[in-house]
Write a structure and sequence with these properties.
Elements lengths: L1 H10 L5 H9 L3 E7 L8 E11 L5 E9 L9 H15 L3 E7 L5 E11 L2 E4 L6 E4 L7 H8 L6 H7 L2 H26 L5 H23 L9 H13 L5 H13 L17 H8 L24 H11 L21 H10 L11 H19 L6 H8 L16 H8 L1
Parallel strand pairs: 3-4
Antiparallel strand pairs: 1-2, 2-3, 4-5, 5-6, 5-7
Helix pairs in contact: 1-2, 1-4, 6-7, 6-11, 7-12, 13-14
């Protein structure tokens, strides 16, 4: 029921409909409409409180909505919304709040902010970590509907779990593995492959390339079209639907020509089925010469085919999730598919005995900073203080005012920069 209520809100946005949603999620939710005019400014209008939840633990959660004067996107406005929400929580003495910021196009951001109590000191959850961007125009609300629609709102801790990036990763992988296995079976049957491992490796190449392209198109690098791959499939289906030509006649030129040669070269030597507009986008696509889009011997040169239906099903699954081009730092985690998913998926699918082990960003970050300290200490002309170097390369806390930068002379600064 809760998921249906959310879907109805997405289709026909009205802030008042969230009252029914919260009553469905927690019977302790007390509707209490209250204008929040005192918190309105040039950026946010029409603020009002929808109600509050008092949990059995004694914690209290505040629920409110504001209209943003600027159009929202997955990347815009999170910091200003966070500051607004934190101010309200401080002044209302609430332990947590769910804040719904929406725009005139009925896009909205659904965010959880809560207090961390450290003795007599109170800190706040990170502004990027617990938030979903939802848009009616995008078919990318699957994670939001799953995690929030099906999530348990009986306690604040369980609500936090509905915003958990690790839970999102597990759900994505579980669904991904279903689609991956469907592709493997289709490839094995269609190409009459007796070797299951051969089919698995071929499909792994296809899925990793496609996920990578999800990030490439998000950056607007293929004709400034953030839905290039989906639009390519749509263009194909208008003429060739069901003929099983999409992989060989459309994706192979994209993979091994457009993305594996310098911009300017005509794709498929002008012997292709693309529209003039698509051909131009492919011709000017970036040269991704890292090896992923080079033909792999014994796989890409065998003439294997992937049926149209399975490709469409995989695209529908994959692009129902929202891609972001921002990699997570060890402090911030977005509830979207980011480039780190490539490493996580690859590690889970490939036997670790073969050496496919993904090193998490937190470990890479630590190793790089420690290496910088050691390298500068060893190679500098002056005996630079290790303590100062650690203060320069490591953070003391999330707050800018807590950050130290070391105490260096002008000469030491010059040496370090060089």
């Amino acid at each position: 029921m809760s998921r249906e209520i959310l879907q109805n809100i997405i289709n026909n946005f009205e802030t008042e409909r969230f009252v029914r949603f919260f009553r469905e999620k927690n019977r302790s939710f007390a509707p209490k409409r209250e204008d929040l005019i005192q918190y309105e400014d040039n950026n946010f209008k029409n603020g009002f409180k929808l109600g509050e939840i008092k949990f059995d633990s004694g914690e209290q959660m505040f629920v409110c909505a504001f209209r943003a004067n600027q159009s929202l996107s997955e990347r815009s406005g999170k910091k200003s919304q966070y500051e607004k929400a934190k101010k309200i929580l401080k002044e209302t003495q609430s332990d947590a709040g769910i804040f719904i910021f929406y725009d005139r196009q009925n896009n909205f951001r659904f965010s959880l902010i809560y207090a961390n109590y450290l003795g007599t000191r109170r800190d706040w959850s990170n502004f990027r970590r617990f938030t979903y961007f939802v848009s009616k125009k995008e078919f990318t609300n699957k994670t939001f509907l799953q995690r929030i629609g099906d999530g348990n709102f009986s306690s604040l801790e369980k609500i936090k779990d509905a915003f958990s990036i690790s839970a999102v990763t597990d759900i994505f992988y579980k669904d991904f593995f279903v689609e991956y296995n469907k592709l493997v079976e289709a490839v094995k049957k269609r190409n009459k492959l007796a070797n299951l491992e051969k089919a698995r490796n071929f499909v792994l190449l296809f899925t990793v390339r496609t996920i990578f392209l999800g990030f490439i198109q998000k950056k607007g690098w293929i004709g400034n079209d953030e839905k290039f791959i989906q639009n390519l499939l749509t263009e194909y289906e208008e003429t060739y639907s069901g003929k099983n030509l999409f992989y060989n006649r459309w994706l192979i030129p994209l993979f091994f020509e457009a993305l594996n040669s310098p911009p300017g070269r005509k794709v498929a030597y002008s012997d292709n089925d693309f529209s003039k507009e698509t051909e131009k986008k492919l011709q000017m696509a970036p040269y991704l010469n890292g090896g992923l889009f080079k033909q792999k011997p014994d796989y890409d040169d065998q003439g294997y085919l992937i049926p149209d239906k399975e490709i469409k099903d995989f695209f529908d699954f994959l692009f129902s999730h929202n891609f972001t081009i921002e990699e997570n730092s060890y402090e911030d985690e977005d509830l979207q598919l980011n480039p780190e998913f490539l490493g996580i998926i690859f590690e889970r699918l490939v036997n670790k005995a073969d050496g496919a082990i993904y090193t998490p960003r937190t470990e890479v970050d630590l190793i790089c900073r420690m290496s910088l300290v050691k390298w500068l200490e060893k190679n500098s002309d002056l005996p630079i203080s290790k303590a100062n170097l650690y203060e320069l390369f490591f953070r003391e806390g999330e707050k800018r005012e807590d950050q130290k930068h070391g105490s260096f002379s002008e000469r030491e600064i010059k040496i370090i920069l060089e």
